[in-house]
Design a protein that fits this description.
There is one protein chain. It contains 14 helices and 15 strands. The protein has about 375 residues and is of the alpha/beta class. The protein has 2 domains: about 170 residues, Rossmann fold (3-Layer(aba) Sandwich), CATH 3.40.50; about 170 residues, Rossmann fold, CATH 3.40.50.720. Strands 3-2-1-4-5-6-14-15 form an 8-stranded mixed beta sheet, sandwiched between helices. α7 links the parallel β7 and β8. The longest helix is centred in the last third of the chain and has 22 residues. The protein is globular, with a radius of gyration of 21 Å. The relative contact order is 0.15.
Length: about 375
């Protein structure tokens, strides 16, 4: 199979869909890997490393899309790339379709096979291809929050750790999944007072256990969320419903009652965000203010640390890429129920129910 790895063109997106080591594995298995010239530079990977791995460098995006049967990306196709997609071509990347009706309709209209990293889900509920980027985003969210809490960046002028005799910052994390647990871990390690909210009591019990009670855990409900958010210096939204739009748990009214100069980081923004006041931002223009509260809602947070993110991502995506390349997409999906859940669009059919429900569209079965 011919696998294409284009250069990402989303604002300040420096990750790349495959490392040279991943390309070498595919080439060794008898496949052809095309990498767009300069695709890895933002992650510190020059073209010569791909060439050394046996990949071929495509000098134009157009030639890469024209030749490749399978496109391996990091972020969803951008409008500039829509015309390059063709019927039957396989797109394997983060899609987050429930937050993007336009892209969903484009993929259906062009009859591509769209497989989303973020909806591949094992029987135990885990999301193996979302996990490494969730870990990065969770850890990065605290780093970002601490930066914007500085007075010179518009914040309250609060140090997360405080100092002896001065209380630390109050950090509230909504959601105790991978993002939330990693955010809580870093915030706790930096000396903040951390409160973690979730509906899952078993998950909260696990967090209590591993942190020996040093992180405050609360079962989430409207009143608890309101009290926690309105007293916080930094709120991190880490709520995920796989494949579906994120629920709006933090209302505009709650935000209006937060302290001036406090910060919210909405890691759920890829799925529409969990604050009513959230709207997507970019690394070029990452923050805006609502009622004196700084909002950071960058849709590709891990792109800020592309080298770490690229290697972490390829570690988990490569086995799935290999399955498609070795067996064909139909056999690869049919043989693995977890992988099958990653299928969002199949040759003009929308086959992911949460996405269909988000837009009031019909959900169909994939017919192989």
């Amino acid at each position: 199979m011919i696998i294409g790895v284009p250069k990402e063109i989303k604002d300040k997106e420096f990750r790349v869909g495959m490392t040279p080591a991943g390309a070498a594995e595919l080439v060794h298995a008898g496949h052809t890997v095309l990498v767009e010239a300069g695709a890895g530079e933002g992650s510190g990977i020059p073209d010569r490393e791909y060439i050394r791995a046996g990949a071929k460098v495509a000098q134009s995006r157009e030639s890469l899309f024209r030749r490749a049967e399978l496109i391996v990306k990091v972020k969803e196709p951008r409008p500039e790339e829509y015309e390059l997609l063709r019927e039957g071509q396989i797109i394997f990347t983060y899609l987050h379709l429930a937050a993007d009706r336009g892209l969903t309709l484009e993929l259906l209209d062009r009859k591509v096979v769209a497989v989303a990293y973020e909806t591949i889900q094992r029987a135990d509920g885990s999301l193996p291809l979302l996990m490494p980027m969730s870990q990065v985003a969770g850890r990065l969210s605290v780093q970002v929050g601490a930066y914007y809490l500085q007075e010179n960046n518009g914040g309250r002028g609060v140090l997360l750790s405080g100092v002896p005799g001065v209380e630390p910052a109050r950090v509230v994390v909504i959601g105790a999944g991978t993002v939330g647990a990693n955010a809580a871990k870093i915030a706790h390690g930096m000396g903040a007072e951390v409160t973690l909210l979730d509906l899952n009591v078993d998950r909260l019990d696990y967090i209590e256990d591993i942190f020996h009670g040093s992180i405050r855990t609360l079962v989430s409900n409207r009143r608890v969320v309101e009290e926690a958010v309105t007293s916080a210096d930094l709120v991190i939204g880490a709520v995920l419903v796989p494949g579906a739009k994120a629920p709006k748990l933090i209302t505009r009214e709650m935000v209006s009652r937060m302290r001036r100069g406090s910060v919210v980081v909405d890691v759920a923004i890829d799925q529409g965000g969990c604050f009513e006041t959230s709207r997507p931002t970019s690394h070029s223009d990452p923050v805006y203010m609502v009622d004196g509260v700084i909002h950071y809602c960058v849709t590709n947070m891990p792109g800020a640390v592309p080298r770490t993110s690229t290697f972490g991502l390829t570690n988990v995506t490569l086995p799935y890429v290999m399955k498609i390349a070795d067996n064909g997409v139909e056999a690869a999906l049919s043989s693995d129920p977890a992988f099958m859940k990653g299928l969002n669009c199949w040759r003009g059919r929308l086959v992911n129910r949460p996405v269909a429900e988000a837009f009031g569209l019909s959900c169909e079965d994939a017919v192989f």
